[in-house]
Write a structure and sequence with these properties.
By secondary structure, the protein is mainly alpha-helical. Among the domains are: 77 residues, no CATH class; 84 residues, no CATH class. Strands 1-3-2 form a three-stranded antiparallel sheet. A hairpin with a 2-residue loop joins strand 2 and strand 3. The longest helix is centred in the middle third of the chain and has 36 residues. It is extended, with a radius of gyration of 25 Å.
Length: 246
């Protein structure tokens, strides 16, 4: 989900009304994080996150929030949000799945109609004649579609350009940015996945020993899809459960 749909009545919920401004802001950041990833209001393993992971994902630290706030609760190491729009997330997922299945059924129905006709050439001639009689409208429609497609592609490209600055700042070794940027723009991996993976790799023995001598160049790491590899040995203590002392 790329947007948040929160019922305004929730602002009058006692749990929201009795929370501080800081708690409300932290809650909204966590709702945005869960909404983007469709986690149903659960941040798995949040208590085990390092300070760097908290800053990158939510813009704050675990120690900044109250452990007994009304807008969230803990279940083991997992953080559960109250007042999360579960129904809206379920609706979005259901509509997406219905649209996918609907498109598949429609395509199958068209294919079956062609097979039942048994005369592909005749169908092509009929389609050609139909296009000839409505050429102006068809051309206008295609021009509009092309315009909207180019506009959308341009918007997506601009967004990827803006996201690159955040991704680049997460690399511990910054060399040959131009090449790394080109590899990133050609990929479709989400910037958050890269940032999270780099945070984990930055704590490994391989990347921390000898003053980072063995850290690969950003372009090389991106080319080999380093975010899909599991870090082998974590050396930082922050990977142990972080307990709040407030």
């Amino acid at each position: 989900m790329n947007w948040i749909n929160i019922n305004t009545s929730q602002s009058r919920d006692p749990r929201y009304m009795d929370s501080t401004w800081i708690e409300r802001g932290a809650w909204l950041s966590m709702v945005a994080y869960c909404t983007e990833r469709e986690t149903d209001g659960v941040i798995v393993g949040a208590r085990l996150w390092t300070d760097r992971q908290w800053l990158i994902a939510l813009g704050g630290l675990l120690t900044d929030i109250s452990p007994d706030a009304l807008l969230w609760s803990w279940s083991g190491d997992d953080l559960h949000l109250e007042l999360y729009p579960h129904d809206m997330q379920a609706t979005v997922i259901a509509r997406r799945e219905a649209g996918r299945k609907g498109g598949q059924v429609k395509s199958e129905a068209k294919a079956e109609a062609v097979r039942a006709n048994g005369n592909v050439e005749k169908a092509k001639q009929k389609q050609s004649k139909s296009k000839a009689t409505s050429k102006p409208k068809e051309m206008e429609r295609k021009e509009k579609e092309s315009k909207y497609t180019l506009s959308y592609q341009s918007a997506v490209a601009d967004e990827r350009e803006r996201e690159w600055e955040k991704v680049w700042s997460a690399f511990p070794k910054k060399i040959d940015e131009k090449k790394a940027r080109a590899v990133y723009l050609e990929s479709d991996v989400s910037p958050q996945r890269l940032i999270d993976s780099l945070a984990d790799w930055s704590q490994t023995d391989e990347w921390t020993r000898d003053n980072g001598r063995w850290i690969p160049a950003p372009a090389r790491w991106l080319e080999r899809a380093g975010w899909t590899e599991q870090p082998t040995q974590i050396t930082r203590k922050e990977k142990e459960p972080v307990r709040c002392t407030l």
